[in-house]
Amino acid sequence: MSPLNSLVLILYSFSLLAVARKEFVVESSDEEPQHYHTLKLSSFLPSSMCNTSTKGDKKRGSLEVVHKHGPCSKFSKDMLTAEEIQTQDQSRVDSLRARLTLNTGKHNTLDSKTTLPAKSGITIESGNYFVTVGLGTPKKDLSLVFDTGSDLTWTQCEPCEGSCYSQQQPRFAPSMSTTYTKISCTSTECSWLTSATGYRPGCVSSTCAYAIQYGDRSFSLGYFGKDKLTITSEDTINDFYFGCGQDNEGLFHGVAGLLGLGQDKLSLVSQAASKHGKVFSYCLPSQSSSVGYLTLGNDGTASNAKYTPFSTVGNSLYGLELLAMYVGGTKLTISPMVFKTSRMIIDSGTVITRLPPTAYLALRDAFRAGMSKYPRTNPLYIFDTCYDLSNFQTIRFPKIGVLWGGNTYVDVPASGTFYVNGISQVCLAFTSNSNDSTIGIWGNTQQKTQAVVYDVGARKIGFASGGCA
């Protein structure tokens, strides 16, 4: 059987995935300025020009993080409406939840029993931050969405024996790289794909074949290989395992693929562990017109980070324990059982934080009370608390604080409080799950400007203010 026919067979082979704690925040008058932000309205709007300055010099193991739809991006012409962004974000949320509902004791196998419904996939599209790495010898630059919710790194490859979407850069051609090696079906490394993707690998002409499918039925399918990964000119991984996609279907236009930063042994974090330990950090810029960074290893720049231990949620997702929330320095009246029941993960690809309804309503009502002097306006898709600030030069709004496990208190940055659809529609950037038992997600809007440090070896996550502009 030819490689093409074998891949087509695989395409039709995998199925649909299917306490009270000690308080240390002093409650105080709403007038105390340390519990409020005051900002100029102009700071809410991104510039039309790219601002590439970030805090600190570029270090070994550090990559620039660029917002896909900002002026610093080569993809900026692909602008989306607020509704499109939130629709894609919900698809991302659904995809993560689908992973958590899988029976972890069973894995789908690449066989010929079922067909794959070809639906437009938007999970990768919702990942709105990307980095550029080099792959192969000589290296070819590839822009990949970086994703803490995924493990396997994959990119589109020539000769594209199935279907490939349009991407900005030329597709990676393994035949042109002197350091590319196919992974055999009988290798130990091939078996690692089961935990990284949820599917047992296939075999095409003695070459290991991978398949990964997301919650919205978008997918990537191809050969499993290894090659030299160039992070910076001084930082390379010689035998980096990745998926060389031959059939990648869904709304995946623009970027070349995905960079997996989960906890599995095939993630970049694990594959770079010998050089950097199992530590990485990133900072997402306050505006799409600025750049942030993704750094492998502990470079010491987040020495002021406050750490909270991981909680166990799934096999490779990053779980957090949320204990309490504050608005304007006042603790919200939310039973600890609400957060204990729902649980929480932190995710680089989800845009907006999802909270249990009981917690969200308490947050929303307290925030509205602190914003009572500003006129409300129409809701915006998933946002029910929006303001028309077109007649104001500055705005004063209550800080939102969270108490994580280990009694770690962290304020949400000012830039992470609102979703701005123009000055006449500035919305509280949180939303509610459908019920209190659905898992919560701490989204990337609430992480803006913070250095977020993942110490996977020590099983803790740190937050440091002022990581980038």
Can you put this structure into words, describing what you see?
There is one protein chain. The protein has 469 residues and is an alpha+beta fold. Helix content is 15%, strand content 32%. Mean pLDDT is 83; it is low at 8-31 and 103-126.
Map the helices and strands.
Layout: H1 3-11, E1 36-40, E2 62-67, H2 82-101, E3 108-109, H3 123-126, E4 129-135, E5 140-147, E6 154-156, E7 181-182, H4 188-191, H5 193-197, E8 199-200, E9 202-204, E10 207-213, E11 219-232, E12 235-249, E13 257-260, H6 268-271, H7 273-276, E14 279-283, E15 291-296, E16 306-309, E17 318-320, E18 322-327, E19 330-331, H8 336-342, E20 344-346, E21 353-355, H9 357-370, E22 376-377, E23 386-387, E24 394-398, E25 400-404, E26 408-411, E27 418-420, E28 426-428, E29 430-432, E30 440-442, E31 451-455, E32 460-464
Parallel strand pairs: 3-8, 5-13, 6-12, 20-30, 21-29
Antiparallel strand pairs: 1-24, 2-4, 2-15, 4-5, 4-11, 6-13, 7-11, 9-10, 10-11, 11-12, 14-15, 14-31, 16-32, 17-20, 18-19, 18-25, 22-23, 23-28, 25-26, 27-28, 31-32
